[in-house]
Amino acid sequence: MIATSPAPQQGPPTDVDCLVVGGGPVGLLTAILLGHAGLQVSVVERWPRQYPLPRACTIDHESLRILQAAGIMADHEHLFEPSRGERGGYQFRNGDGELLQAIDWNRPAESGWANTNGFYQPDLEAVLEAAAIATPGVTVHRGWTFTSSTQDEEGRAVTQLAATDSHTAVVSVRSRWLVGADGANSPVRTHLGIEVGDSGFEADWLVVDYRPLAEESWDAFVVQYCDPRQPTTAVNSGPGRRRFEFMRLAEVTPEELAREDTAWALMAPWGVTPETAELERHAVYTFRGRWAQTWRVGDTFLVGDAAHLMPPFMGQGLCAGLRDARALTWRLSMVHAGLADPTVLDSYGPERSGHVREIIDEAVAAGRVICELDPQRAAARDADMRQQMADPTATTEPPHPRLGHPSITVPSRDVEGRLAPQGRVTVGDRTGLFDDVVGGQWQLVSRVGDPCALLDAETAAWFQRIGGSLTDMSPTGPVCDVDGAYERWFTRHGCDVFLSRPDFYVYGAGDHAAAPTLVSGLRRTLQPVITERNRPR
User: Fold this and answer.
1) Rounded to whole angstroms, how far apart are CA atoms 95 and 217?
2) Is cis: bond before 406, omega within 30 of 0?
3) Contacts of 53 (CB under 8 A, 6+ apart)
4) For the chain, which has fewer Cβ within 10 Å, the N-terminal or C-terminal residue?
């Protein structure tokens, strides 16, 4: 784990652009991205120190691209262990070890990074907190607890905070926006009275993290052992670390399951013993699928676990929170700069809620398969899965959800609201991932010619003013598609140009000649009307 010194306990500034409640990965990323855009941001976290033990342990390609945009990946790529193996990366096996399904978590991913990766959350949190503290305009304050929030006569949030170790110390913070990144039991969400939807799925599981003392060879990144005698998950959880998860059976109490000797006994069939492994953590969690019914009340927004919970079977809990942070921050940044009307904030919740509900449904469905305890139903399940595995047309890739509606997109051959690609490119003598070499908050990319040549000067200037980049990736253009990632994407979707958003989702796509229509449509959607409410400081 990366060592950090105790954070100072002084209170935050009393007037900021945005107050983020919650100093976990999602809250810290939110602050970093807003700080890069020039906002004054304070993060308050109730715990005086970073949590020293692992929780989330898998992260996907899209999330790594988001971290890349935050400046994290340049020096910290080593924190992440890509999924490898010849049998699909993610496996479902029955109690006898027979392979029932293999999902290709090792496939080439759209975002330029390995599809799935293991990591150690305390290391990532330490890096994010250091990056937040180093970002101009961002301050991080540990030991402060959210108590309430009201609105003043100017429409700004006034948030009351109390020192965690002494509720006699209080401070009021005025902010234009308030972001609740304060976890599953979110005090911000509770204070706002937001109702929570429930999938009806609930199961207690023992989560055990350990460090192998000798090299272990697993043929998949994740294996779900769908054994009605003892449902079990095995996960590569980052460099030098492994995780097992065991479902609680009816005859076992939560207290019995939480004992250290129970953890060793359950791992023994896999050869994991006190002689072969160092136990880092064992804790019982209740896996659920839940979501906030609304993600916004006025100028207060929810992100991360405050907005959604899902069983961990798809490894998407933290990934969803990082998506929330990126989707919200590009909107807040543009409104703050006077480049977009505040109405763009209206689509944040519907877009993200629709997207994450698909993932929650997938995770719950996987959970119902894994958690089956009836031997006869498990045998029928196994037979069905064998039959599906024999079908060459069966889906063997992870889900690819799209943004919910209404969304900031335009109908475009069914590609709008889906992830845009990032591949390696060469410009001059420099080769690297597109976002590092070319960049751009809004990316207009064509494989036919120069999209700038199709825009009038005023429209091109506006597009560049909002952080847009115009890229000619044609065979004679200045940007070379090194590995053919963009060519494959264009061919698969039957288009020649796409316009992607700061969160890497496609706004629209079409023939090369559609470029002016896409940009002008985006301009109308953003409605950059300068008023006293959105006038930049």
Assistant:
1) 20
2) yes
3) 122, 209, 280, 281
4) C
